[in-house]
């Protein structure tokens, strides 16, 4: 188990806890933009032994960043305190991911249905929301959301274009 201390925007110490097993990785961290950054770095470091193809590595990091930042921004708005758990299980064909949090439920307790951005619109008129979910849906598979009690559970799979070299 590894712990990475850092500070969050409120000036409070934050810790990212990483636990690794042969085919599994668990990341536990407090909600906050800086904590997401640290959790992503710890996650990617925890996946380093898989010797991922650079394209797959970029896709994994992008999807995880979108998912985790959405949790912070919408599940824990206004710097509300809370914890986020990320579980990743790998096999030769990809990664199965589960993100858990106790933040606010998704509107309607279901995943948003995004529309691709209109490239003909000037950037300032593009809405802030939706493009991240479009990316998540395009780059992952088996995406599902559940509200279980007071917890959100988002699960998805990241299929790899190149097989993992060592498990």
From TrEMBL:
<dbReference type="GO" id="GO:0005524">
    <property type="term" value="F:ATP binding"/>
</dbReference>
<keyword id="KW-0808">Transferase</keyword>
<keyword id="KW-0547">Nucleotide-binding</keyword>
<keyword id="KW-0418">Kinase</keyword>
<dbReference type="InterPro" id="IPR003594">
    <property type="entry name" value="HATPase_dom"/>
</dbReference>
<keyword id="KW-0723">Serine/threonine-protein kinase</keyword>
<dbReference type="Pfam" id="PF13581">
    <property type="entry name" value="HATPase_c_2"/>
</dbReference>
<feature type="domain" description="Histidine kinase/HSP90-like ATPase">
    <location>
        <begin position="35"/>
        <end position="157"/>
    </location>
</feature>
<keyword id="KW-0067">ATP-binding</keyword>
<dbReference type="InterPro" id="IPR050267">
    <property type="entry name" value="Anti-sigma-factor_SerPK"/>
</dbReference>
<protein>
    <submittedName>
        <fullName>ATP-binding protein</fullName>
    </submittedName>
</protein>
<dbReference type="GO" id="GO:0004674">
    <property type="term" value="F:protein serine/threonine kinase activity"/>
</dbReference>
<dbReference type="InterPro" id="IPR036890">
    <property type="entry name" value="HATPase_C_sf"/>
</dbReference>
């Amino acid at each position: 188990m590894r712990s990475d201390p850092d500070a969050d925007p409120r000036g409070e110490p934050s810790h990212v806890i990483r636990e690794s097993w042969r085919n599994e990785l668990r990341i536990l961290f407090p909600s906050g933009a800086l904590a997401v950054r640290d959790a992503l770095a710890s996650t990617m470091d925890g996946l380093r032994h898989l010797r991922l193809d650079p394209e797959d590595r970029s896709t994994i990091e992008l999807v995880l960043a979108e998912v985790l930042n959405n949790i912070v921004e919408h599940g824990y708005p206004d710097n509300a305190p809370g914890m986020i758990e990320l579980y990743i299980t790998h096999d030769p064909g990809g990664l199965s991911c589960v993100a858990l949090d106790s933040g606010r439920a998704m509107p309607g307790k279901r995943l948003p249905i995004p529309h691709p951005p209109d490239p003909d619109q000037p950037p300032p008129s593009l809405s802030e929301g939706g493009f991240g979910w479009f990316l998540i849906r395009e780059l992952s598979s088996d995406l599902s959301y559940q509200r279980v009690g007071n917890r959100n559970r988002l699960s998805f799979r990241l299929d790899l274009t190149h097989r993992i070299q060592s498990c």
